[in-house]
Amino acid sequence: MTGRPAAVPEDRPVRMGLIGLGSMGRHHARVIREVEGMELVAVADPYGDKHGVAGPLPVLPDVEALIGEGMEAAMVAVPTYLHEEVALALAEAGVHTMVEKPIAATAESGERVARAFEEAGLVGAVGYVERCNPALREMRRRIEAGELGEVYQITTSRQGPFPARIADVGVVKDLATHDIDLTAWIAQSPYVSVAGQVTHRSGREHEDMVVATGQLENGIIVSHIVNWLSPRKVRETVATGENGSFVANTLSGDLTFVANGDVRSEWDASRSSGASPRVTRSGMPSLAESRCAWSRKASGTPSGVATPTSCRWPTGCTPSGSWKRCWSPPRPTAPSLCDHPTPHPTGRRAWLLQTRPGVANVCPRCLSGWRIPGPVPQKPLSTSCVLRRL
User: Fold this and answer.
1) pLDDT tens for each residue of 299-344
2) Measuring CA to CA, which residue among 159, 152, 312 is closest to residue 218?
3) Backbone phi, then psi, for 27, in 5-degree steps?
4) Is the peptide bond before 102 cis (omega within 30 degrees of 0)?
5) Is the dihedral of CA 240, 160, 349, 134 positive or negative?
6) Taking the alpha carbons of 176, 180, 182, 187 in that order, is the dihedral positive or negative?
C-alpha cells in the first residue's frame, strides 16, 4: 500500500494496530481499549502473547501481516533495534504511527524514520509519556506564565532498580532520553550542549549509570542523574529560578513550589534571636503573595496582614508597587499533630500545588505522611498548622 493516506474518519473509532506484546505492549493494548475513539483491531508479536492481552484477536507474526488488517494507526512496542524496520514499513503503508522511545537505536536511524513519516504526510510520534504527567504539564504552564521569574537551572533524577525487560539498550536510551526530552519541552528551548559520564556496574554490555550536564539555547543549565541500580525509585524534576523552585514528583504527579527566602539552619537559629525566615506558600490563585505578605506600598497594609516587623531586603517595596520579599513573621512551630516535635529544620513550609483532584497541601518535614485537611487556605498562613495522617 503506497500513496497518500486518507484522513482518519471522525464519525467512527480509529482502527488501531499494535505490534509488540511484551512488558510495554501489554499496557498499550489496555490503554487503546480504554480510550474513547480507538478500536484495537489487530496485534502482532512473533513470540506470541505471553501476557494474554490479545483477547479474541489472533496474534499475527509480523508487521506485514499487521498492515494487511487494514488499520489506520499503529503503536510500535518492539525492542529498540527493530524500531526502524517496523516504523519504515508502516510509513510506506500509509499508517499513522507512534513508536515507543527511543525512536530508533541510533541517531541516523531516527532521522530516517522521522523523514519517512514527514515525506509521506503522516503523523509520526514518539512515546515520551512524561509530557502527559500532570506535575510536568503544570510546571511548564507556570514557568511559561512567568511565576518562577527567570529560570536558572533544571535538574532531573531518574533512578530505580534494574528493569529485567531491557536487554538491547543501556540506561541512556531507555531512561535518560525521557529527561532530555522533558527538559527541553518544559523550558521550550533546545539543547546547545550536553556531555556525560557513564559506568558499567552490572556486568552487562550496556551502561547502567549516567550523569549528564548541559545547557539550553536560552541559557538554562541542566543536569541529569539516571541509573537503574538504585534500590530506591526516584522520579524528580526541579526547576530553579529567581523566585524559587518548582519540584515535580512524576511518580505521584505532585508539584511543589518553594519560594526563595532567607532560610537559616537550626544551628543559626540557636545562635541568634533575630527575625526568622518567612512562611512561604504556593498553590494559591496567584503566587505573588507567596513572594511577599506585605502588599503594594502605595496601597498600605493589605487586609488581614499584620505590618511587617522587619525587612530582610534593603530596597524594601518599590514605589512602582511591585511585589517584594520583605515580611519576616515569627518562626513557625511544629504542627500540633505531627510526629516530629522539633521545629521544622528549614524554618518554613513548602505548599503542594494542586495538580489533580484530592491532592492537599503538605509541609516538607512530613512530606510523605501528613497532609493538611480541608480546602487550600485563601489567607496568609498562621505559624502553625493542624495535620492528619493519610
Assistant:
1) 344 444 444 444 433 334 443 333 333 333 333 333 333 343 334 3
2) 152
3) -70, -35
4) yes
5) positive
6) positive
Residue 283: all three cell numbers together: 498553590
Percent of the chain with pLDDT over 90: 58
Q: Which H or E element spans position 209?
A: strand 209-216
Q: What is the DSSP letter of 171?
A: H
* Bridge partners for 370 per DSSP: 389
What's the whole-number mean pLDDT along residues 95-104?
A: 94
CA dihedral 341, 344, 349, 354 (to 10 degrees): -50
Residue 60 CA to its chain's centroid (Å): 35
Q: What is the DSSP letter of 237?
A: E
Nearest to 100 by CA among 71, 130, 73, 79: 79
Alpha carbon distance 382, 312 (integer Å) = 20
Q: Which residues pair with 317 in a beta bridge?
A: none
CB-CB contact of 45 with 39 (8 Å):
no
Q: Helix 134-144 crosses helix 177-187 at what angle (to 10 degrees)?
A: 30
Query: The C-alpha cell of 285 is what?
Result: 490563585
Closest Cα partner for 246 from 372, 138, 132?
A: 138
Nearest to 269 by CA among 342, 320, 339: 342
Q: Amino acid identity of 52? A: G
Per-residue cell: 107? 541517531
Q: Are 18 and 75 in contact (CB under 8 A)?
A: yes
Local structure of 116: helix, strand or coil: helix
Residue type present at position 98:
M
Kindly report the pTM of this predicted structure: 0.64
Query: For strand 254-259 and strand 244-249, is the pairing parallel, antiparallel, or unpaired?
Result: antiparallel
Beta bridge partners of 98: 75, 125
3-class secondary structure, 221: strand
- CA neighbor of 115 nearest in space, from 102, 124, 106: 124
Q: What pLDDT, in 10s, does the model give residues 194-224?
A: 999 999 998 888 999 999 999 999 999 999 9
117 grid coordinates = 513519516
Cα 386 to Cα 274: distance, rounded to the nearest angstrom: 26
Three-state DSSP class for 227? strand
Contact call for residues 61 and 5 (beta carbons, < 8 A): no
